[in-house]
Amino acid sequence: MKLPIISSEKLGWDNVRFFYWPSVPAHFMYMDEANAEADSKQVVTIYGCSDGTPESGKLHICPHGYPSRLIQHGFSLFIIQIVPSFLDTIAYESGYGQIGAIEIKHKAYVQDAKLWQLGSWMLEEVRNGGVHGTLYRDSLATMTVLHLLQHYALIAPLDSAPNRSTHQQIAEVIQYMREHLESDLELTELASVANVSSPHLIRLFKKQTGYTPHQYFIRLRVERSKVLLQYGKESLKAIAIQAGFADQGHFTRLFKRLTGITPMQYANELTARR
């Protein structure tokens, strides 16, 4: 059996696992479906196939079994495996029903831009060794399951009223983020601050701020780095660590993504204004 070129196995992705092959391995084309179903019945699996063009991406959502007849040779392939207990927990916390009562519909040849984007983000994150940290990993996993529940579950969600002011809850989470910028926060940790479930926090946070918790956390880190750059006393490497980034390269990439310039260019502009 040909091992995946990229895998999340060594990154501690326990609830949602990710695998990628640039070309579908031959054994996928001839896998015995009975054995495959026995092996994969414990997970909900998403198969993503593409020939490299944006319009070619097709997804197969399989609550059990393996779609060998649907996998096309010569295409790239990514696989997202979701542990049922994690799906049940997110479903229960989100008001979709009791644990064990959720059923995901089998779908083939789906073109779902959001789900494909989530798979692409997972690929990028695993390829980069999990550089964005635990909060990003947890957010990707939770958003993937929420998307499945919203679009492919057989049970409609039940609304539940919040027991605290949304503004107060989000303000407390943001303050907690500010106090822990150097930490690798978990989504469940932030959810406990707001006294809500992880999926509910993502929905509340995005509705209130326009960003996911991870996106906002990165913005706070960039804002702290700007303050440190203004002092002009630390190296870029030291500032990267103090602002909570994995390393200087990670710091530079995200700083430029949000501001349009590198930290060095920003520092030079500050110097020129003095």
UniProtKB/TrEMBL annotation:
Gene3D superfamilies: Homeodomain-like
SUPFAM superfamilies: Homeodomain-like (SSF46689)
Signal peptide start-end: none
Keyword Disulfide bond attributed: no
Protein name in the entry: AraC family transcriptional regulator
Residue spans crossing the bilayer: none
Keyword line: DNA-binding, Transcription, Transcription regulation
Source species of the chain: Paenibacillus alba
Listed SMART domains: HTH_ARAC (SM00342)
Recorded superkingdom: Bacteria
Every HTH araC/xylS-type domain range: 171-269
